[in-house]
Design a protein that fits this description.
alpha/beta, globular, 4-stranded antiparallel sheet, Aspartate Aminotransferase, domain 2
């Protein structure tokens, strides 16, 4: 299994700090997520039903004609490689590692590509996989450029897969409205912006023929009844969505400023996290963990991802922890 953020129990044991004393900034999940109401008790005794309003709510929210609910976008990430014969797959790197892992273990030829290499990679790929905005770097691409890459791929029956897990704060940049085109597949999730990672609800936006293949492969009832009910309600709560977009933009800007004043200048990020690349990433990760603050360490790229603190007390705790970090102090002296 690959490493992910949110491994609090492992960190608690490793650093001998009780679980309830941690500040978890490792996931990029909105810590001020959609307020979950009591779930109707009857949902636990019924099988999920497709005509409960979820698909319609998702079509309206994502501005698409066709959508398939799945048990988190991870379910689609693992299943999509099984729908193609052996292919040449270009995947943006660094990025969410589950994409490359899924294509590699199902026998496809996977090539990691940097942002600067994407134009060249298209010519040598049958499938291009992007996270947009990218996780962890926050890199973005103009929709016009993405659609141009898509045209090049579909000319030879290829696919463009865009994972938009962090797109909710900038819906105008989404490719969801274009997914009536063959070979364009967009993945969405309620885990990040809505803060409902535990519900395991995601969506695939694509042409109906592909969605039917995918649905057949993953089978019925792949999203539980309670999850479907929560997702429908959250997708329809436009007032909360609008307020949260503004709130996250402000918090992300504040986090960028806090890291910058600590000499940890972010090289990228989005409205849900900031990304710092430094050769001292591992040492800084340990310094903060010893104070009960968990960040996401990316060892291959020697970088850290910082999520958004939930409360003013948590903001103060992070600021004080950064000030007390020996590694951060060395960086300030160098600067």
């Amino acid at each position: 299994m690959l490493e992910h953020g949110g491994q609090l129990r492992i960190a608690a044991k490793q650093y001998d700090i009780p679980l309830d004393r941690w500040l978890d900034l490792s996931t990029g999940i909105n810590p001020m997520g959609w307020p979950v109401p009591p779930v109707p008790a009857g949902l636990w005794s019924r099988l999920p039903e497709d005509n409960d309003g979820l698909e319609q709510a998702a079509r309206e929210y994502y501005n698409v004609e066709q959508v398939l609910p799945v048990a988190g976008s991870q379910a689609a990430i693992q299943a999509l490689p099984l729908l193609r014969s052996q292919s040449r797959v270009g995947i943006l790197s660094p990025a969410y590692a589950e994409h490359a892992n899924a294509w590699h273990r199902t026998g496809h030829h996977v090539t990691a590509t940097t942002e600067q290499q994407l134009n060249t990679a298209i010519a040598h790929s049958d499938v291009l996989v992007l996270i947009h905005p990218n996780n962890p770097t926050g890199a973005r691409f103009a929709p016009k450029q993405l659609l141009a890459w898509h045209e090049q791929l579909t000319a030879r029956n290829g696919w463009l897969i865009v994972d938009e897990a962090f797109m909710d704060t900038t819906p105008e940049q989404s490719l969801c409205p274009y997914t009536d085109r063959p070979g364009l597949i967009v993945l969405r999730s309620l885990g990040k912006f809505f803060g409902l990672a535990g519900a395991r609800v995601g969506f695939v936006c694509a042409q109906q023929a592909l969605l039917s293949q995918l649905h057949t492969m993953i089978g019925p009832w792949n999203v539980n009844a309670a999850g479907r009910w929560l997702a429908t309600s959250a997708l329809r709560d436009r007032s909360w969505q609008a307020d949260t977009r503004q709130r996250l933009k402000l918090h992300s800007s504040r986090l960028h400023g806090l890291l910058t004043q600590t000499a940890l200048h972010p090289q990228g990020g989005c409205d849900l996290f900031q990304w710092v690349e430094t050769r001292y990433a591992a040492a800084l990760h340990r310094d903060l963990a010893r104070q009960g603050i968990l960040t996401r360490l990316f060892e291959e790229s020697s970088s850290l991802r910082f999520g958004i603190p939930a409360t003013e007390a948590n903001w103060q705790r992070l600021e004080q922890a950064l000030a007390a970090c020996p590694t951060a102090e060395n960086l300030r002296l160098i600067a």
